[in-house]
Amino acid sequence: MLTQPRPIRLKGRSFLALALSPELPVDDWLARLDDLAARSAGFFLRKPIVLDLANLDIGQAELRDLLAKLAARNVRIMGIEGARASLLAPDLPPALTDGKGTSDIEIPPAEETAAPVPAASPAPAGPAPVQARAHASLVLNQPVRSGQSLYHADGDVTVIGSVASGSEVVAGGSIHVYGALRGRAMAGTMGNATARIFCRKLEAELIAIDGFYKTAEDLEPGLRGKAVQIWLEGETIKVAALS
């Protein structure tokens, strides 16, 4: 007896990806990328990367050369955004459109410390972040305001205050927020699956550990507004109230 074949099931998914926006001259931009890789080993490891060419006027031969140089640096491009149709080809990463942007993560040069980077206007003066040494914790003695990104690849981040909606905290280790977490918190970004996120009041737009994430819509309603800890089990984000 012939059985009815089972249909192929297609499911929609949305994923968090980093977008790289190269600048001319490309060799200088690659040198800055090498500096980041040297200071933050594994930053691009196992991360989906989108190449944003909206502000880069290059030809297809130059694009192929750029992709080859990125591949040699273990930067794997999953798609290309903002490119002319004539620039793409079947053997190149596919074109991506309608990506939902977040605030930029601006990484300071080697001689600067990791500090909040205003995306719009400078924040009012206040106590400066404290960074004792590489691979140490970063303590911010003020809130993270809307539009700011706080990036620290070398360890834990502690915020003595709240993280506002529209802001972002990115850490290679764990994240501790002694206030409301209303923006985005991404811990364990250097491949640290044991990293955790702690906050006194969960109102986050997005939480992520080691590349796995949940948006506000995915969080249990009963945990919103509560003091919680967030961790990763396998490939599943777990959230539990703190007693």
From TrEMBL:
Keyword tags:
Cell cycle, Cell division, Septation
Q: Which one Pfam family would you cite for this protein?
A: MinC_C
Question: What does the annotation say about its assembly with partners?
Answer: Interacts with MinD and FtsZ.
This chain's source organism reads Gellertiella hungarica
Q: What is this protein called?
A: Probable septum site-determining protein MinC
What is the annotated role of this protein in its UniProt record? Cell division inhibitor that blocks the formation of polar Z ring septums. Rapidly oscillates between the poles of the cell to destabilize FtsZ filaments that have formed before they mature into polar Z rings. Prevents FtsZ polymerization.
Per UniProt, residues of the Septum formation inhibitor MinC C-terminal domain are 140-239
Taxonomic lineage is: Bacteria, Pseudomonadati, Pseudomonadota, Alphaproteobacteria, Hyphomicrobiales
Family affiliation: Belongs to the MinC family.
User: Tell me, which GO biological process terms does this entry list?
Assistant: cell morphogenesis; division septum assembly; regulation of cell septum assembly
> Does the record carry Repeat as a key word?
no
Q: What is the primary gene name for this protein?
A: minC
UniProt keyword Cell cycle, yes or no = yes
